Amino acid sequence: MSSIPSAPGPRAPDEPGNRPRRGLPLLLSNAVDASGRQGADLALDVLAVTILGATAAQMGLLNALGTLAFLVLGIPIGVLVDRSPTTRLILNAGLTRAGLLSTVVLVGLLDALSLPHLYVVAALAGTAGVVTETAQTAVVPRAVGTDRVASLVARLQSAESVIGLVVPAAAGALVAVLGAGPTLGLSTAFIALGAVIVLKLTVLPPVQTHQTDQDSRDEAATPARAFRRFFGEAREGWTTLREIRPLWRMTWGVMAINLGLASYSAIEVVLILRVLDLGPAVFGALVTAGALGGLTGSLVAVPSGTRLGVPAVLRASVLMLPPVAALTLVALADPGRAVLWLGAGTFLWGVVMVTYNVLLAGLAAELTPGALMGRVSATRRTLSMGVVPLGSIGGGLLADQAGSAPAVIAWVALNAVGAVLILTALSRPRAAEH
């Protein structure tokens, strides 16, 4: 977005027309890695349930361990990534994750699979995944220059949004044909391939700070100084996020929207299959409608933002979130035509949610100083994803105690709160402080 100044950072030495092509290896690596990650997550869940007979509580623990690093280690990982945002880091993290998942494939072939093994792999592979995702974002300014950051990050988000909708369905079909073990093996190969592809990416040297080599040696001279330096860098990411007021308000808006979505996601299956009694076939059709909506959103987000302006399209997207969510309330009030209301709502939700995600990701990257990309993005993820478990638990409890309608109303209301916060962030785009 041209009206918001980008933080000073490196400029790619290539001619401007060649810069978009510089990011293609990162875009391809991210897409292949995300495909492998989505397939592996589904295959692990199927293995746990079908082979090991995991209960709902055990599956909850498995999923929690997979995201634990995201919440606990996100900011420290952001500090480490900012110190060395290199393709080698992405390579090592990807190969580490592939190696961990391959142990599950091997042990499965030996018929020695166990839940504790899956727990350990989920936690460690999740940590490697956080490193990969943070490094992929942090390396963008060094790949295409600061003036292309928003565009490339938006395309990365667009591709990942589509993959998150399409690949699980494809992986499910593959599990039905080949089984969970072979699907996990293929997904692991995709993760390794994604890590190797990134070596084709050409990047500039990291931005040099004012700190001298002697300063670095002095700070690293004792563990206490190194510890203080580490937390000082982590605090810098938090402080920078707070000081860039539009970015700070956007983060709060995303937290509200994620909280609402998590509360609804916790009851969605129960609402469709039990409350409305629509059956598995209708549920599958609704998932397909959402995937088609997401695909549509990914195709129109960047072109519409380029033609009409990112702020205008982003405003329209967030304003549509509450009324689209409210179509689920209409379905509850009109159960005879619930399939039509839910189908329309699911498709439109895919369109506006992916459009909002893609454009907001690009704008947030443009507002973030390149040298702090890892720390600031990790801090934002920790905040925005940290509310998801609370939303899931709260939505389930609210539906159990008061019924599905109040839980859906809470989802609509939180979308409205998030939309207002994001709109206020966009109302004064020149107020960003760097």
CATH homology-level superfamily of the largest domain: MFS general substrate transporter like domains
How does the major sheet shape up? none
Q: Report the top-level CATH class of the largest domain.
A: Mainly Alpha
Q: Counting H and I runs of at least 4 residues, what is the number of helices?
A: 18
Structural class: mainly alpha
Order of helices and strands: HHHHHHHHHHHHHHHHHH
Q: Which architecture of the largest domain per CATH?
A: Up-down Bundle
Count of strand segments: 0
Poorly predicted runs: 1-17, 209-216, 429-434
Percent of residues in beta strands: under 5%
CATH topology of the largest domain: Growth Hormone, Chain: A
Total number of distinct structural domains: 2
Mean pLDDT: 81
N-end to C-end Cα span: 16 Å
Radius of gyration: 22 Å
Shape: globular
Helix content: over 70%
Main location: membrane
Keywords: Cell membrane, Membrane, Transmembrane, Transmembrane helix
GO molecular function: transmembrane transporter activity
InterPro entries: MFS (IPR011701), MFS_trans_sf (IPR036259)
